[in-house]
Amino acid sequence: MGFLKTKNKSELIFDIIIYTVCALVFLVIAYPLYFVIIASVSDSTLVSTGKVLLFPKGFSLFGYQEIFQDSRIWIGYRNTMIYALGGTFVNLLFTLPAAYALSRQEFRARRPLMFFFVFTMFFNGGLIPTYLLMKDLSMIDTMWVFIFNPVTVNVFNLIITRTFFESTIPNEMYEAAIMDGCNHFKFFTKIVLPLSKAVISVIGLYYLVWHWNDFFTGLIYIRDYSLQPLQIVLRDILISNQVFAEGAGSTGSGYAQRYADQVKYGVIIVSTLPILVVYPFLQKYFEKGVMIGSVKG
Amino acid sequence: MPFINSQTNKADNIPIIPLQKKKTIFNTFKRDYQLWLLILPAIVCVIIFNYIPMYGIQLAFREYDFTAGLTGGEWVGLKYFEQFINSHMFIDLLKNTVVLSLTTILIGFPAPIILALLINQIRWKRGKKILQTTVYLPHFISIVVLVGLLNVLLSPNTGILGLLVNKLGFEDLNLLASTKSFVPVYVLSDVWQHVGWNSIIYLAALSSVDPQLYDAAKIDGANRWQIIRNVEIPAIIPTIIILLILNMGHIISTGFEKIFLMQNSLNLPVSEVIETYVYKIGIISNQFSYAAAIGLFNTLINFTLLLLMNYIAKRTSKISLW
């Protein structure tokens, strides 16, 4: 922007203030995350007396050992993995074709259908009618409730995708394809989808993260312990303070208490790890996705 | 309406398919049947999981009957609404819900705007990138992990922040179990988690500001603070208004999951909100009709506020959702 050329005293002060505030924001947001990592591999007595601040002290992997011995974590992990992959697949299967149809200018029912979807963003039946519907459909205590629910077609993602199709697939391309004897199905699968990797990654990630973090469905609709997703298991360990049923944690209450926090720090990391692994690869798409969606909210 | 408006045809540019034919609904359906098939699964899904529950709202006016299902049961009118409004919980629930949502909006809404303006001022590219990556990150942490994080960090005996607070002299203050600290902890942790993510949309709006405006402002002798005030803030006002309208619609439906997870017997006087109460009455105690009425009360206030905000915005700034 050329600001750098005209650097005078007041500009410099302005810069110093900006960078100081930014550094503070960075520290406030980054430090708790960093602290969890170092606390999870430090001696829990040193952590609880405030001695672990910048680097791990009294290195120990005890927390992780406990976690890997606990079968509940693994059941939760496995369940969530199934729900997240299956759920995201269904989400995309429903959202992408619908977004394509809504993106076609010549589609007569386009506007009323858009209203039909958008209305659900502002008005809903509420918890009890939804719960009773699931009950009537016999979906309670099944894995299906994680996959088919009011969020299966997320309207926000639908709008993002529709806007992306509208703004990146030129109408000339459709005309040319029609000339060559293409129909909507072929055009959608052979041309639109391969050209839309960016938006598919973005909404795929949104859906995946939603499923991974979904605590509500497990809380409301699932009683059977073997079907519980990871987030419910995490709630039991992190918030309800349930001591590990298996492993060394159960041998004595004082002992368990002492290590409970280290286990908690470890659990936080183990459960968030998959998202942190995918994050850097998809980060470049975030802004693009939000920007595309915001053009025509 | 697109069904009958012939003007839209010209702009549509549809090749080959002759438009001279009479546009009866049947003809357009015949032409668009492939698009209908593509959108059908989504329509069916939304009807079943979003619209049937709306239809089921009438449960709030009926006596729930296990054998009659969602919309059966004897009609009782406003009985359950009266019961809720006259119950001793009503004032407290309403107050807690409004206080929590208003504070969240008051603190949480301007925060990402300020952050976006701040990030936009950074000219050190690498630093900007690192800051953005970091501030987006907490958004992807689950609610359970976030509350778990609060629990371990704020614990008065073993948590690092809890220890800090104690050192500062608030010795008897347990941040997790006090009626005084519940709202600040809830709101500030919410800002911590979402401020970065919510700033993206403002950054996007800022990036589309015409560079000529910056140049013109500089020629006029504007300093950077004046550019922020007179160029950048006006440029993001439309985005701010749209997001404010959307947020107002949620004023009374605060995050159920987070409040529910942060609740304990000591902070319950300020942490019981309408949504957590609906869960307890409906799912835990099986009083379906009563809970549905309370839930509907909540939804109606939400919806009214949304309409009201939209109307005000339309009248004052000509910006609206529809």
Automatic annotation (TrEMBL), chain A:
Signal peptide: none annotated. InterPro entries: MetI-like, MetI-like_sf. CDD domains: TM_PBP2 (cd06261). It is a multi-pass membrane protein. It is found in: Cell membrane. Residues 77-286 form the ABC transmembrane type-1 domain. It holds the Pfam family BPD_transp_1. The chain crosses the membrane at residues 12-37, 81-101, 113-132, 144-165, 187-209, 263-282. Keywords: Cell membrane, Membrane, Transmembrane, Transmembrane helix, Transport. PANTHER family: ABC TRANSPORTER PERMEASE PROTEIN MG189-RELATED-RELATED (PTHR43744), POLYGALACTURONAN_RHAMNOGALACTURONAN TRANSPORT SYSTEM PERMEASE PROTEIN YTCP (PTHR43744:SF9). Belongs to the binding-protein-dependent transport system permease family. This is Carbohydrate ABC transporter permease. It comes from Metabacillus elymi.
From TrEMBL, chain B:
Keywords: Cell membrane, Membrane, Transmembrane, Transmembrane helix, Transport. PROSITE patterns: ABC_TM1 (PS50928). It is found in: Cell membrane. It is a multi-pass membrane protein. The chain crosses the membrane at residues 33-52, 98-119, 140-165, 195-214, 235-256, 288-313. Pfam families: BPD_transp_1. It comes from the Bacteria. Residues 94-309 form the ABC transmembrane type-1 domain. Belongs to the binding-protein-dependent transport system permease family. This is Sugar ABC transporter permease. It comes from Metabacillus elymi.
